[in-house]
Design goal:
heterodimer, A: 227 residues, alpha/beta, Rossmann fold, seven-stranded parallel β-sheet, 8 strands, globular, B: alpha+beta, hypothetical protein PF0899 fold, three-stranded antiparallel β-sheet, 6 strands, binds guanosine-5'-triphosphate, binds magnesium ion, binds zinc ion
Chain lengths: 227, 117
């Protein structure tokens, strides 16, 4: 006997993601999911970005999804912000963060007193793209030490993100990297994505990215009526 | 690597669906569909599925059939629908960039075959 069911395999994850989104809208907290290959500069971005947000009076928290160690969370300690560390597994662990770990990781935050929570996702360009975290904004980093054709190899990642950050641009002078070609490839996958060039080392492009975040965060008034 | 999580989700869903209708039935076959965008490695999914099915009595002999579906899109400007083979999301007819994905980026359990009584 054949039962036709046609149900989405990740619907359980999606349901919790919607619950997280509602929670965030109601507490006026912007949840931002940062994804990239290992080493593209997610933690370095947070190290540079967060003090600048704090200077502008923005209250920040981080969910640290580096699941192999607590090293990234330790790097962020000096910022004196609440950090929620997803359980670690010294020899690998999962390849993505599902909402079953994000939801409990949100527990420690006082959402009413938090404006932005960043999720540093697991360094991986395939799997995290598949799992909705409930974030309002998905950001992908791609560094200039990676290939210009990365977006074509990992299209889903660039489809699910609203913002792409080309990182480590301070290294451009010593590399043979074609930023315009990378941008063309990103836009092939997602013509609506916003692209910024940043260096977490020199700070170039970071304030412009913050301006975009702040503009974005003001957008949720309509959804809020549903709280 | 997300194939393991996907295999777990497939098994959970199948047990739930079968449990609702015919609990304790042996499951013969599960048809799973994913889009090309999902970047599923079938060998890896099969391996994951075969590894964990052993822990589920009514799934121990189940076969997972994996079907990979093409990416189909509709242009919001001219309304034309097409299947794309290259990761390039602009309209082949009017070069519009408002492209809606109709299929090819979602994963489903399509059907489950259980033993006849
Ligand atoms: N020159 C330069 N180096 C950078 C920049 N951003 C990050 N790096 C370096 O790149 C390496 C990796 O940076 P991380 O911030 O740890 O990268 P990540 O994405 O958090 O890595 P995982 O958490 O392991 O996935 C470190 O050695 C950083 O110092 C940048 O803007 N310029
Ligand atoms: Mg990191
Ligand atoms: Zn068109």
């Amino acid at each position: 006997m054949k039962l036709f069911i046609v149900r989405k395999v990740l619907e359980a994850n999606a349901k919790i993601a919607d619950e997280i989104r509602r929670k965030m809208i109601c507490s006026d907290t912007l949840l931002i999911n940062i994804m990239s290959s290992p080493g593209s500069g997610k933690t370095a971005l947070l190290e540079t970005l967060i003090p600048r947000l704090q200077k502008r009076g923005v209250r920040v928290g981080v969910i640290e999804g580096d699941i192999t160690s607590t090293r990234d969370a330790e790097r962020l300690q000096p910022l004196n912000i609440p950090i929620s560390q997803i359980n670690t597994e010294p020899f690998g662990g999962d390849c993505h963060l599902g909402t079953e770990v994000i939801l409990p990781a949100l527990e420690p935050f006082d959402l009413e007193k938090t404006d932005i929570i960043f999720i540093e996702n697991v360094g991986n360009l395939v799997c995290p793209a598949e799992f909705d975290t409930g974030a309002a904004l998905n950001v992908v980093l791609i560094s200039v030490t990676e290939g210009e054709d990365k977006p074509l190899k990992y299209p889903l990642m660039f489809r699910v993100c609203q913002h792409a950050l080309i990182s480590k641009i301070d290294l451009l002078s010593v590399l043979d990297f074609d930023v315009e070609f990378l941008k063309t490839n990103i836009l092939k996958i997602n013509p609506k994505i916003k692209i910024s060039e940043i260096s977490s080392k020199t700070g170039k492009g970071i304030d412009e990215f913050i301006d975009k975040l702040i503009r974005f965060s003001g957008k949720d008034d309509i959804a809020k009526s549903k709280c | 690597m997300h194939e393991l999580t996907i295999a777990e989700n497939i098994i959970k869903m199948v047990e739930l669906e079968v449990g609702k209708r015919k609990p304790d039935q042996k499951i013969r076959r599960i048809v799973f569909q994913a889009g090309r965008m999902n970047a599923i490695i079938p060998e890896s999914l099969t391996f994951s599925f075969d590894t964990i099915k052993k822990y589920h009595a009514n799934l121990a002999e189940a076969e997972l059939v994996i079907q990979i579906l093409p990416i189909t899109v509709r242009c919001q400007s001219c309304g034309s629908e097409s299947t794309i083979d290259e990761p390039e999301f602009s309209c082949q007819h009017c070069s519009g960039t408002e492209i809606e994905m109709l299929s090819g980026s979602e994963m489903f359990v399509e059907s489950i075959e259980i033993d006849e009584e």
